[in-house]
Fold this sequence. Notes:
The protein is an alpha+beta fold and 872 residues long. The longest helix is centred in the middle third of the chain and has 20 residues, at 524-543. Belongs to the ITIH family.
Amino acid sequence: xxxxxxxITFIIFLLVLASTQPNKDDWDIYSFHINSTVTSRxxxxxxxxxxxxxxxxSKEIEFHVQIPKNAFISKFRMxxxxxxxxxxxxxxxxxxxxxxxAVSRGESAGLVSSVxxxxxxxxxxxxxxxxxxxTFELTYEELMKxxxxxxxxxxxxxPTQPVSDFKVDVYIHEEAGISFINVKGGLSxxxxxxxxTKTHADKQAWVYFYPTVDQQKMxxxxxxxxxxxxxxxxxxxxxxxxxxxxKKSDGYFVHxxxxxDLPRIPKNVxxxxxxxxxxxxxxxxxxxxxxxxxxxxxxxxxxxGLITFDGIISYWKRExxxxxxxxLESAKNFARNIQDRGSTNINEAVLQGARMLNAHNREGSAxxxxxxxxxxxxxxxxxxxxIQSNVRQAIAGKFPLYCxxxxxxxDFNFLEKMSLQNNGVARxxxxxxxxxxxxxxFYEEVATPLLTDVTMIYVGATNxxxxxxxxxxxxSEIVVAGEITDNNIETFTPQVVAISSNRRIMFxxxxxxxxxxxxxxxxxxxxxxxxxxxxxxxxxxxxxxxTEKEKVKKEALELSLRYSFVTPLTSMVVTKPPGENTDVxxxxxxxxxxxxxxxxxxxxxxxxxxxxxPVHGTGMAKFKHAPVNPPRHQAPVRVLKKNTRGPAPRVRxxxxxxxxxxxxxxxxxxxxxxxxxQTVPLCFDVSGSLQLKLLxxxxxxxxxxxxxxxVVNGGFNSIFIHFQTxxxxxxxxxxxxxxxxxxxxxxxxxxxxxxxxxxxxVHNKKIHVxxxxxxxxxxxxxxxxxxxxxxxxxxxxxxxxxxxxxAVKPAVYEVVQQVPVxxxxxxxxxxxxxxxxxxxxxxxxxxxxxxxxxSADSALQRPLADFSVAQL
Length: 872
Ligand SMILES: *[C@@H]1O[C@H](CO)[C@@H](O)[C@H](O)[C@H]1NC(C)=O
Ligand SMILES: *[C@@H]1O[C@H](CO)[C@@H](O)[C@H](O)[C@H]1NC(C)=O
Ligand SMILES: *[C@@H]1O[C@H](CO)[C@@H](O)[C@H](O)[C@H]1NC(C)=O
Ligand SMILES: *[C@@H]1O[C@H](CO)[C@@H](O)[C@H](O)[C@H]1NC(C)=O
Ligand SMILES: *[C@@H]1O[C@H](CO)[C@@H](O)[C@H](O)[C@H]1NC(C)=O
Ligand SMILES: *[C@@H]1O[C@H](CO)[C@@H](O)[C@H](O)[C@H]1NC(C)=O
Ligand SMILES: *[C@@H]1O[C@H](CO)[C@@H](O)[C@H](O)[C@H]1NC(C)=O
Ligand SMILES: *[C@@H]1O[C@H](CO)[C@@H](O)[C@H](O)[C@H]1NC(C)=O
Ligand SMILES: *[C@@H]1O[C@H](CO)[C@@H](O)[C@H](O)[C@H]1NC(C)=O
């Protein structure tokens, strides 16, 4: 039975794809080239796709590729009928303003979005006349980062159809000499392995990948739609063990410093591990596994500490101890017994970690603090700025703090800012089967400190990128770029001063002349400088307060514009023939579309956005809803009277800006119901400002109700929680109101609020509610300046005797008929459905999903009236 259903799902999925994919007969990608040139670890990649409209009528032709997150797009053009249409990089605000209309139509926003761990996608389309051709050309640039002793150039190829002239050309030129080069990735396996040619000659290497049409259909994850996968070029350069490599050109230099023959420095490392309730299940298991591996890798002269935390801090030992076998055994035992429980006191945990490192003698060693967490702070100090300032004070620049954010419930910005403020970096750990390997991989990057207090000095240079580095690890690399004053190589003197164990050492190499690119003028070194400067300014901006940000932002913006980089501050306006919609593309923020993290490579069509995403088995339905009516039907001022349980009814006034008076058409709110194991969720509409039962658990005396917004077609305008007769919490987008007996207290701003055993932690865009065993996160979304709430149930004791929308079980259905109307079978009942879209507001930012639309009663398998409540 299960199998049949799965097969049917798959067939349906293909049918849906087939009916919505651009028809292959309509247009033909007759040539697809990817050309990557790498010099001094700076890769410039050009993707060229040539497409012909084979039809008698004009057709919309799409260009859709995926590029590394770390890269900046620097050019995009289209050639149509002898005309060139060059994209223009503009300040983001300016681009947005200019094209607000397009943006509000939803045509232009998010043309670039994150996909998976390392990629983001670029998408645009253009209408091409009958029998005409179009050439798309996209250029992006990236400085490769050395980790684990190698560089990796990732090339993603998914042309969406087999292409007769398909080529990937990679050319690498490294003055230091290439020590090894390998080709990895899904496209280097099986039938495709034969399509790769690799040539390696000292300073240069070439990789050609020319698969035939047949080969393009035969590889893993390839099919009738051609290839879909990565080619990853892995290489390293020869190391001299002095000052490293300096390359200069046109008045700019870039210095790569990565000595490897130094002795390792003993390290002091403290692991601060989140064991709060949300780590439950696989996450905590993987953390234990990774921790045990990591402990096994510690060297005997290392010292270490282990702290686990939820609301309470647990120490394995109060002080750092030596990593001898006896201590390691005991620590591993401790690690095996880490259990999930309770809330998240990040502040106290990190401060205790810092205290342990501060108390330990750091002379001749390298100290490292590693925090692993999967959520926002929910106990102790919860104000994010306060935590950051406490941590900064406790660490005082003495050692780096690395923050590992597990999954997508973490406020990654917060972790990133906290790491950067303390000489570290933040890394996301993706919830997946290999999470333990990701954790271990990160640890290995910092496992072997070779130098501390590294100062890079360049006499005769200016406009330098970062020159001070608290630690240097084996397998990594320090890169500094700058401008040579007056382009005078004579006075330009690079030098590195650092501490190796207890010795102060200096690297300088007066004998070696600085290598120059010769007579050929090459702006690439200057672009490396610009790339690095912009990246570092963006990091710096993140750490600064609002008032200090402006200057740094301005500088980063100017450079982005000058070098035509699409960065988080700029956008590319895609120029098209007259009469077509303008596309404005922005660079997405890290982790902006969490849904896509499981992207399995099934082509996603622009028109339907079918997402092939495993449904999360929380056992709870997730509710989302889609905008149906545009907000122009709003009354400008709306007064709602509410009969709350408090002493007096409250009056709420909402002012919606700038909208003409209109008849009050009821708004439609669209909800999504996840499915047990189908790809496409169900959805249904609810009209008006209903008061809904979200979660009722009479035996626990827990009641959560919500009122749908009647002003914007967003989610809820308020959510009420009643717990154990006496505690009443009302949450709306402006604050939290607590009623206990006759006492009423209002709270606004970031705060932690308790009412009996109900705890509400308010962050900027997220509100955590804990009541007994229930954990609820209320996301605060914003649309057209109006805020609305969306509840997401994270944990509950049993869904068994709970009622309400949040307790609805994932749907189980089969598709029993496709034409003339689609019919789904749910519990022996056949229901007519239509394919539609819904916005999933249970994630931040929201994403649009394809869904099967039906009536609320059918989707819920009981009357919607059962979910309405008379009183909030
Ligand atoms: C869902 O998948 C599981 C295992 O993959 C299977 O046991 C179960 O029967 C499936 N349920 C439905 C409704 O297809
Ligand atoms: C790839 O790009 C480089 C630099 O623009 C150019 O010199 C080279 O000819 C291109 N290679 C191919 C195969 O197009
Ligand atoms: C294109 O037009 C020609 C002549 O008008 C016609 O014979 C042919 O069938 C058309 N082809 C398509 C694919 O419509
Ligand atoms: C650093 O890495 C290199 C090459 O990966 C290795 O040969 C060397 O032994 C490492 N140094 C230490 C101290 O582990
Ligand atoms: C580079 O430095 C010079 C002088 O130090 C300064 O005038 C110039 O503005 C700097 N350029 C940039 C792009 O920061
Ligand atoms: C870099 O370190 C040196 C010496 O440790 C110090 O004098 C200098 O101020 C530091 N520079 C920056 C920008 O922090
Ligand atoms: C520099 O050159 C001198 C003389 O040629 C030589 O003795 C010395 O070892 C060289 N130093 C380095 C660091 O290569
Ligand atoms: C779903 O959204 C896509 C754009 O993402 C749009 O092209 C399509 O028409 C929508 N489908 C429906 C039924 O509204
Ligand atoms: C659900 O309820 C039934 C009957 O009340 C009980 O037997 C079962 O153990 C419950 N399941 C869970 C997961 O609580």
